[in-house]
């Protein structure tokens, strides 16, 4: 078998039942010839000396605890433990032990306290033969009994046998009888032994023994035994506290005697576990697991019994919402419901669902709406705890109730607005309650836990409701504290002093930080609704007023809000920021911060770095155009030079894009001249065509034919030559390379109406021939002036 070395601490149990550290070393499992078997060896890591050599005996009960601990007993009063640094090492050694003993490594104990063969033997042999033999229950034997009880705790088998012995002989009640005798005689030595005995019996971890010890006629004597800790000079007075100081309050009389008894028992046992018993050591924490289970199942039973008594709960909620109920009574009722909900956390999920549905049907939410609006701080705090249980259980249930509330003219009565107002009005300087309520609000408005059904979408409906009826209540303190920013700016123009509008009060600053945290959450998760709200209220401008706050954490919250908005890379937001010049307060804060290297500086730089890396062009252009002169002196980071570089790259890119559509000026002169001539002719012909063509076309055509005949006779030759001179430029513009006359007619066919209209004009207005020539000369003079505008 291969050696496996793991780092461990070796512990042994001393006479005082305390674990002593024997040193740190490395453990291995090796065959030792002298011991004739596989053994556990631990050699010290300091000098290699042997700390432990223990043969793995087939009959020794090894126990694995907490994944890194192996405990076993080698003799009646010699208990050992190995505490591993790593779980892997513990598992490997545990597998080796189980392999030697032929046991399943999945088990935590290699030897069952009572296996099947032993059970069969117990049935055949008289019952007392397998039990630990207990000394007679007498005052003179108390020390012997105490030694026996404490000695068996390390051995699971012996613990089991002792528990059976204590049960079979009615030994517990006899011991408690001796306690009363010792107390009457003021026998301190006997009382100290009884403390050890009762503590040891509790550590046997047996539910059957707990049933006896925690019964009505025994539990106060058990508490009495535990008062006499030998380590204390004077005994504690636990019984006095339980009987006189602790008062059982029945907000509504409980008629079920069994339920009342169960409540008393649970309270006292919880007191024993939490107050009387010392905190168990790392090796003892499993000893009281059954005690924890005992309390757990008691609570489950109490909740179930109360839940089934509908008359009781109906009366609780009736009195809770009754205006005639006294404040002290209402406080007790709210505390009862709070504790009732806390107990419900012990229920299984399906039972917890039924529990909260029962409360919902009984009207828990309308009751909370009333109670949370009361002036009593204790009542409000307890109501907040109840509300948190409900939101944690089912946010949808709370949202559904809120949306079904009658829409009254006063929004203040809505449950969510009551919660928001309580958050805003929290009197705690540290805003503990406000932080809790902010977390609950975030859960309620989180789209991740909103359900979408086939008929309706909870997300859309609830968010529309929230932004219509509740958002203005949430943002009211923020808007109120930034309301006069414009006035203050006018008063302090050119000043870098702290804006007096910003809250200097630390508690107010904390509240605004909480509100901003919630609004930042909304920006991330509510795209449409929050965008509309920010634009309508100009909310970002108001938030950025807080960049001037003397409380850096509040300025950072304002900056984080803007960073989330820019992080969305939404051009709608970007245009809003540019139009409002909303970078100005951020840059002012950066410049006012100077050369201090702090979180505000880093967060602001990161904001601009994000814009640069993500290449948000509109924001880069805005920042460089408006603020680069103020920022260019910041050279300890390359962020602003990088922004300038991005800006220049974009300008070059746009210039190249414009130049792509231009030709070289020298090669374009001739073409442009022809183009403008063509454009002038087109403009002239279009103007004539629009004014005369439809009305006079038939008449003009006849005159044109007569003019042509007259040209053949030479009657008007000079005039016709002048008129014919107008047409060649048109034909040249569309027929390059000196095309033949026939090709001119073919290509220029679409322009025929233009030629005709030119002819029409000449025939109709022979006296205006000189005017047309003057216009042509003017157009030729104007065309060079057009060229620079087009090519510019």
From TrEMBL:
Annotated ranges, domain PP4R3 EVH1-like: 5-101
Domain Serine/threonine-protein phosphatase 4 regulatory subunit 3-like central, residue spans: 144-649
Biased composition (Acidic residues): 669-686, 765-781
Domain of life (superkingdom): Eukaryota
Gene3D superfamilies xrefs: Pleckstrin-homology domain (PH domain)/Phosphotyrosine-binding domain (PTB)
Biological-process GO terms, alphabetical: DNA damage response
Role played: Regulatory subunit of serine/threonine-protein phosphatase 4.
Protein name, per record: Serine/threonine-protein phosphatase 4 regulatory subunit 3
């Amino acid at each position: 078998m291969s050696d496996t070395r793991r780092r461990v601490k070796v512990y042994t149990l001393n006479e005082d039942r305390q674990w002593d550290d024997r040193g740190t070393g490395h453990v291995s499992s090796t065959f030792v010839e002298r011991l004739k078997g596989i053994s556990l060896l631990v050699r010290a890591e300091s000098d290699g000396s042997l700390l432990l050599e223990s043969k793995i005996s087939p009959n020794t009960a090894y126990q694995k605890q907490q994944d890194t601990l192996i405990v076993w007993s080698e003799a009646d009063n010699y208990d050992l433990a190995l505490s591993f640094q790593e779980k892997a090492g513990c598992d490997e050694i545990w597998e080796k032990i189980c392999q030697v003993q032929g046991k399943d490594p999945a088990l935590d104990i290699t030897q069952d306290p009572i296996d099947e063969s032993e059970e069969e033997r117990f049935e055949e042999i008289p019952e007392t033969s397998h039990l630990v033999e207990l000394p007679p229950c007498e005052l003179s034997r108390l020390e012997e009994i105490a030694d026996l009880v404490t000695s068996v705790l390390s051995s699971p088998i012996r613990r089991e046998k002792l528990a059976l012995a204590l049960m079979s002989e009615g030994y517990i009640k006899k011991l408690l009888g001796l306690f009363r005798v010792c107390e009457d005689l003021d026998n301190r030595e006997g009382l100290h032994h009884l403390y050890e005995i009762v503590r040891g019996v509790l550590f046997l971890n047996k539910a059957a023994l707990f049933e006896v010890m925690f019964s009505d006629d025994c539990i106060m004597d058990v508490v009495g035994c535990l008062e006499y800790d030998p380590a204390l000079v004077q005994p504690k007075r636990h019984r006095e506290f339980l009987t006189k100081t602790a008062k059982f309050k029945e907000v509504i009389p409980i008629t079920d005697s069994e339920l009342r008894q169960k409540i008393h028992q649970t309270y006292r046992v919880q007191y024993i576990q939490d107050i009387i018993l010392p905190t168990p050591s790392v090796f003892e924490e499993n000893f009281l697991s059954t005690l924890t289970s005992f309390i757990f199942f008691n609570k489950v039973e109490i909740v179930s019994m109360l839940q089934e008594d509908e008359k009781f709960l109906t009366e609780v909620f009736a009195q809770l919402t009754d205006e005639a109920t006294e404040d002290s009574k209402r406080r007790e009722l709210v505390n009862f419901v709070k504790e009732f909900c806390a107990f419900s956390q012990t229920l299984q999920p399906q039972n917890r669902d039924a529990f909260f549905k029962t409360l919902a049907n009984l009207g828990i939410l309308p009751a909370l709406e009333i109670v949370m609006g009361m002036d009593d701080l204790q009542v409000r705090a307890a109501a907040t705890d109840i509300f948190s249980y409900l939101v944690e259980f089912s946010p949808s249930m709370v949202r559904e109730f809120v949306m079904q509330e009658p829409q009254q003219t006063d929004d203040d009565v809505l449950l969510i607005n009551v919660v928001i107002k309580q958050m805003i009005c929290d009197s705690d300087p540290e805003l503990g309650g406000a932080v809790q309520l902010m977390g609950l609000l975030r859960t309620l408005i989180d789209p991740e836990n909103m359900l979408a059904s086939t008929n309706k979408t909870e997300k859309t409906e609830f968010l529309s409701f929230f932004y219509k009826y509740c958002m203005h209540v949430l943002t009211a303190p923020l808007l109120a504290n930034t309301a006069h920013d414009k006035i203050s700016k006018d008063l302090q123009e050119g000043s870098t002093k702290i804006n007096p509008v910003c809250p200097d009060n630390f508690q107010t600053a904390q509240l605004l930080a909480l509100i901003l945290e919630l609004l930042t959450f909304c920006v991330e998760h509510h795209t449409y609704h929050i965008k509309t709200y920010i634009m309508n209220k100009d909310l970002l401008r108001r938030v950025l007023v807080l960049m001037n706050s003397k409380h850096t954490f509040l300025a950072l919250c304002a900056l984080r809000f803007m960073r989330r908005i820019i992080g969305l890379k939404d051009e709608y937001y970007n245009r809003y920021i540019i139009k409002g010049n909303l970078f100005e307060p951020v840059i002012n804060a950066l410049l006012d911060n100077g050369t201090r290297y702090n979180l505000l500086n880093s967060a602001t730089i990161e904001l601009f770095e994000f814009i640069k890396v993500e290449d948000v062009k509109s924001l880069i252009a805005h920042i460089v155009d408006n603020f680069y002169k103020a920022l260019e002196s910041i050279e300890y980071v390359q962020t602003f030079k990088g922004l300038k570089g991005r800006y220049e790259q974009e300008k070059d890119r746009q210039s190249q894009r414009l130049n792509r559509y231009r030709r070289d000026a020298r090669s374009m002169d001739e073409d442009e001249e022809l183009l403008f001539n063509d454009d002038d002719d087109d403009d002239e012909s279009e103007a004539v065509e629009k004014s005369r063509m439809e009305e006079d076309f038939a008449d003009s055509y006849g005159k044109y034919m007569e003019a042509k005949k007259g040209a053949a006779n030479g009657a008007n030759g000079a005039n016709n030559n002048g008129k014919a001179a107008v047409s060649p430029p048109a034909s040249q513009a569309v027929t390059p390379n000196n095309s033949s006359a026939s090709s001119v007619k073919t290509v220029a066919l679409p322009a025929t109406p233009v030629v005709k209209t030119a002819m029409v004009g000449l025939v109709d207005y022979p006296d205006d021939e000189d005017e047309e020539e003057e216009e042509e000369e003017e157009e030729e003079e104007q065309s060079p002036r057009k060229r620079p505008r087009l090519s510019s």
